[in-house]
């Protein structure tokens, strides 16, 4: 029994080192980052309801991921998209009251806005992306307000440093 007691601390030490190494190996990679993405809202929240929301859920997958972005112009907020992403944008149904979106970096909400249609007679005081009516160039622009920028109220988050940093790290900034 005395020999077992002498080996017991060594056994605990070996077990502790093994567990520590195993846990370290599991977390060494760290969480994967998504970077820049544009999501639709979970449950299709109306743009008119966005200011009243305490919580905005994201759709299960981004509408536009960082991989879909060919380039982003930080001065004009024009986003050149891949062919497939541009087709997705042209195919979403945008009512005249808009369709809410959420701009995220690593699934953290940076700002909210609405896709808007140029046939809408309703004004909007938030950030907008106009639904494209043409197929070329495959570019969308993140704008202030609808129908013109003077309708915008709030703080312009389009140049949020986290967004610009994520796009720069991904090599997507134009110019």
UniProtKB/TrEMBL annotation:
This is Lipoprotein. Keywords: Signal. Residues 1-24 form the signal peptide. It comes from the Bacteria.
